[in-house]
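Q: I'm teaching a short session on how sequence maps to structure, and I want students to see two examples side by side rather than one. Could you give me a first protein with its sequence written out and its structure tokens following it? Keep the formatting plain so it prints cleanly on a handout.
A: Of course. Example one:
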Amino acid sequence: MKRVVCYDVVDDRRRNRIFKLLKDYGRRVQYSVFEVECDEKSWIQLEFRLSALLSEEDSLCVYTLCQSCTHRTFYRGNFTRWLMEDQNPIL
């Protein structure tokens, strides 16, 4: 299942920890936005770890995409270059 994870974290140290955690699970599409594709067990683990890092002043939003929505995803701009580089690691 693919999820889009967006976050707004006040503290730089917590923000860096969340970034590093999400980087291990998905692909960064904007500064504070990641696409994460994983099974339900991995998602529960990630959700637990994210919750432990967040404070009350932070925010986290997760959008779960169905298979049909995933196929209708549209990318434009610099991100298309990143996608091509991910598909061809020689670049």
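Q: Perfect. Now a second example for contrast.
A: Example two:
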Amino acid sequence: MKTSLTVRVCLDGQAEDIENVNHASDFLQRWPIERRGHVYRTALNACSAAIAAQVSASDAMKAFAGFARVSGILVPSGEAMVLEQRSVQIRMPKQGRHMLK
């Protein structure tokens, strides 16, 4: 299940190219138990769903890339993959609204 997305990660000084969801799933299985959290579970579930043909391999690889970025193991690569940038919306209090006493 090859995709056009390749995610390069670096863990303990070893760079590794993750080229498909099977490889991503294998990498996640080796991830230290004490470092597993919500983002890890999301990436693992996405890879499992892609292997079962329930989601696209591309979406699963994007989830894996997000995991790698949040975990600090993603190696920036200009052409290997492009993720959509998310904007942060700041909510400002409405003018003229007063707190009741």
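Q: What should students look for in example two?
A: Point them to this: Helices lie at 21-29, 38-51, 57-71. Also worth mentioning: Confidence is low (pLDDT under 50) at residues 79-92.
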